[in-house]
Amino acid sequence: MRIYPLSEGSFTIDQTKVFVPFNTNTENLQLRPKGSILVEIQPFVVVTDNDIILLDTGLGYFNNAGILQIHANLMAIGIDPSSVTKVFMSHLHKDHAGGMTYVHPTHQERFVSFPYAKYYIQKREFEYAMSEPSSSYIAEQIAILESFSGVEWLEDDHGTIDNLIHYQMTAGHCKFHQACWIKEQNETVFFGADVAPQLQQMKSKFVAKYDMDGKKSMEWRQLWWELGKIEQWNFAFYHDIQFPNYTPCKTV
Ligand SMILES: [Zn+2]
């Protein structure tokens, strides 16, 4: 099994929840509005024996060549976007769900970005996102998924997809957030998305202000970090600027 981060760059965000590109080499962190946080936006692609799996889909921005960022990033590592077989969605905040669909630059019509893939989406998260528009959810990015036959709606709190992906609803970050594990042979890729977004948070007690239930997220992180050490998980950190992937030292 191979995993590749598909970084869309570093961004700074303040209370307005607008993602502003940020160059860590040339810009000064101190000059940002108070309470700003700095994050990477980083979906992942996991290549297994029979599947090409995306873990979340990025912001959905277009690059300078007019190509959807996540399509360009896949092509840059030799993966044809139309060969993606599965798209797993942790939750539908705009920095994760933006690339699920896109507006065609000339037709101005919205399309599904991975029409040959199955999209795995938590049903309650979708309904919540559609019914509670906010600065975090953009209904028009996801509305067409309701009529897309490729969606497999996940309705349980946990379950297994094709004997390969195990998902667990966690809440914590938002009401219906879910994490997943991909297991093949003796390897485990773990994607905790926004409940486990950065390496540093795994190692220290940290309650995030941006979480709906910060304490719950912290408890999940502590549990996962212990299990991950024992079982040698490969952690995929969606918002880590320095460590997209990390396997902790083994404990017995
Ligand atoms: Zn996020």
Can you characterise this structure?
- There is one protein chain.
- This protein has 252 residues and is an alpha+beta fold.
- The chain has one domain: 4-Layer Sandwich (Metallo-beta-lactamase, Chain A), CATH 3.60.15.
- Helix content is 19%, strand content 26%.
- A six-stranded mixed beta sheet has the order 1-5-6-7-10-11. The protein has a six-stranded mixed beta sheet with strand order 12-13-14-15-16-17, with no helix packed on it.
- The model has no long low-confidence stretch (mean pLDDT 94).
- Zinc ion (ZN) is lined by residues 93, 95-96, 194, 239.
Characteristics:
single chain, 252 residues, alpha+beta, Metallo-beta-lactamase, Chain A, 6-stranded mixed sheet, 6 helices, binds zinc ion
In short:
This protein is 19% helix and 26% strand.
Structure classification: alpha+beta
The percent of residues in helical segments reads 10-25%
Bound molecules: zinc ion
* CATH topological fold name: Metallo-beta-lactamase, Chain A
Strand order of the largest sheet: 1-5-6-7-10-11
- Per CATH, the superfamily is Ribonuclease Z/Hydroxyacylglutathione hydrolase-like
CATH class, please? Alpha Beta
Q: Which H/E pattern describes the elements?
A: EEEEEEHEHEEEHHEEEEEHHEE
Number of strands: 17
Work out the count of structural domains.
Answer: 1
Beta-strand proportion: 25-35%
Principal-axis shape = globular
